[in-house]
């Protein structure tokens, strides 16, 4: 295993771990895979599906050989993350217009978001280096996940959260898991900039996705989808984009599967951003090669409130390798799609529903054919943002097309029979 800079290609041994190259570029982790045999590994991964209460019962560590083969088991901090459902829904198929739509519910992870797939690896790696104090800046999902794993590892977590436009549920979850929460005036982007300058002096292990071990763990999301589908992926994978770690990991995971011979065909990737926080989509759709940061990102899908995504160069590589596309959707489109994901019984937080809204838009624009199949990655649980539920269903100013309001009635047989 070695670290390779995505900007200048300089290589470093994995033991000299850092978050950035001397040139300022982020690192990729590159494994030595020459000795790996796909057919043999498929059997190993299949056999591990019956593991219980061992690290290999985790939907991340099941794929340890492709993620972090060198890590000694004693350092693994796991809550058996991953193992999340892959669902189909006729309601959502008719909404998007596709022949087949699957939903990968990363919302079912132990802390309620896809961050757990990467965080188990980052915290385990930090432990192996002797760290006990972990940190991140976050709109709330990364912080909840970190706080949970740091406590499981009997360590401490220090998290920085913007003082506005984030979900109180997530901050409360982070506090409850025992993190020291520091609220600051600024955005996620300001928090990342602070770390880039001061991480060394603080002596904290950073668990944001500028840490390449987070990306290694998040690759397991697409490994799991592929394994459940007997190593045949749908035509498209649709994914929301904020910090862009998810699409980066998706692209890296797909390359692993293709290069090693697990899959024959790489699906195309559709990356969906919220209109008010869409610097990456702006760059791609305007044919630019440099990202222009959005100084005041705002979307009601608070997990996507990011104007300067650190992983944009890695994300661009995913698009290039998969003939990918991008689009943006409005907050109302996101919230209506979310109402249907919730009504389908699967449920998700607003950011996740950008995928369903984006798929519908791309089908209507005939960029995705209605006969093509798609999987949408749902990133967070519906209870991550209960204010969004309240505003949509009970809010006086709600414009929700799929509102479901509470009815009041006196408890008499006549009344109730009339309502049913
Ligand atoms: N929405 C994210 C933003 C943080 O991204 P990361 O990829 O650096 O962890 C959050 O939950 O904080």
Please render the helix and strand layout as text.
Layout: E1 2-5, E2 11-13, E3 27-30, H1 38-47, H2 64-67, E4 86-88, H3 90-96, E5 100-105, H4 115-128, E6 133-137, H5 141-152, E7 156-162, H6 168-176, E8 180-184, H7 188-202, E9 205-206, H8 212-218, H9 220-228, E10 236-240, H10 245-260, E11 268-274, H11 279-285, H12 312-322, E12 325-329, H13 331-343, H14 350-364, E13 373-378, H15 386-394, H16 413-419
The protein binds ligand LJ64HWYM.
Pfam family, one: PALP
Pathway: Amino-acid biosynthesis; L-threonine biosynthesis; L-threonine from L-aspartate: step 5/5
Function: Catalyzes the gamma-elimination of phosphate from L-phosphohomoserine and the beta-addition of water to produce L-threonine.
- Beta-strand portion reads 5-15%
Instruction: Assign a percent range to the helix content.
Output: 25-40%
Provide the CATH top-level class of the domain at 86-112 and 214-394.
Alpha Beta
The coarse silhouette is globular
- Helices, by number, come to 16
* SSE topology string: EEEHHEHEHEHEHEHEHHEHEHHEHHEHH
**Strand order, largest beta sheet:** 4-5-13-10-11-12
Class from secondary-structure proportions: alpha/beta
User: What integer value in Å does the Rg equal?
Assistant: 21 Å
Low-confidence stretches: none
CATH fold assignment of the domain at 86-112 and 214-394: Rossmann fold
Return the average pLDDT rounded to an integer: 97
> What small molecules does the structure contain?
ligand LJ64HWYM
Task: Report the strand count.
Answer: 13
- Characterize the biggest β-sheet: 6 strands, mixed
Distance between the first and last residues' Cα: 62 Å
CATH architecture of the domain at 86-112 and 214-394: 3-Layer(aba) Sandwich
């Amino acid at each position: 295993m070695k670290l390779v800079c995505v900007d200048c290609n300089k290589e470093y041994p994995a033991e000299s771990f850092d978050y950035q190259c001397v040139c300022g570029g982020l690192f990729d982790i590159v494994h030595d895979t020459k000795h790996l045999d796909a057919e043999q590994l498929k059997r190993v991964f299949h056999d591990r599906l019956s593991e219980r209460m061992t690290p290999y019962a985790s939907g991340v560590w099941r794929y340890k050989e492709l993620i972090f083969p060198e890590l000694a088991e004693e350092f693994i901090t796991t809550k058996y993350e991953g193992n999340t459902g892959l669902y189909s829904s006729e309601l959502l198929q008719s909404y998007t217009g596709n022949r087949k739509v699957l939903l990968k519910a990363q919302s079912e992870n132990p802390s309620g978001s896809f961050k757990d797939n990467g965080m188990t690896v980052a915290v385990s790696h930090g432990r192996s280096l002797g760290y006990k104090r972990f940190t991140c800046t976050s709109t709330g999902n990364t912080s909840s996940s970190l706080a949970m794993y740091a406590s499981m590892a009997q360590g401490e977590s220090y998290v920085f959260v913007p003082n506005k436009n984030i979900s109180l549920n997530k901050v409360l979850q982070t506090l409850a898991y025992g993190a020291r929460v520091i609220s600051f005036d600024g955005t996620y982007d300001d928090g990342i900039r602070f770390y880039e300058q001061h991480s060394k002096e603080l002596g904290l292990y950073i668990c944001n996705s500028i840490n390449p071990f987070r990306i290694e763990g998040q690759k397991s999301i697409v490994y799991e989808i592929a394994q459940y589908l007997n190593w045949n992926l749908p035509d498209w994978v649709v994914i929301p984009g904020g910090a862009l770690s998810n699409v980066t990991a998706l692209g890296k995971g797909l390359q692993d599967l293709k290069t090693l011979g697990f899959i024959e065909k790489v699906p195309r990737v559709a990356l969906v951003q919220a209109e008010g926080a869409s610097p990456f989509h702006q760059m791609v759709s305007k044919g630019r090669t440099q990202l222009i940061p959005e100084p005041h990102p705002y979307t009601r899908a608070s997990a996507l409130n990011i104007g300067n995504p650190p992983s944009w160069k890695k994300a661009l590589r995913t698009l290039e390798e998969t003939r990918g596309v991008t689009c943006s959707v409005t907050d109302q489109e996101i919230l209506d799609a979310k109402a249907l994901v919730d009504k389908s019984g699967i449920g998700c937080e607003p950011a996740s529903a950008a995928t369903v809204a984006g798929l519908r838009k791309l089908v209507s624009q005939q960029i995705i054919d209605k006969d093509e199949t798609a999987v949408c990655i749902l990133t967070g649980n519906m209870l991550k943002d209960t204010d969004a539920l309240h505003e949509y269903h009970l809010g006086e100013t709600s414009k929700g097309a799929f509102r479901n309001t509470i009815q009041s009635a006196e408890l008499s047989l006549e009344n109730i029979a009339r309502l049913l």
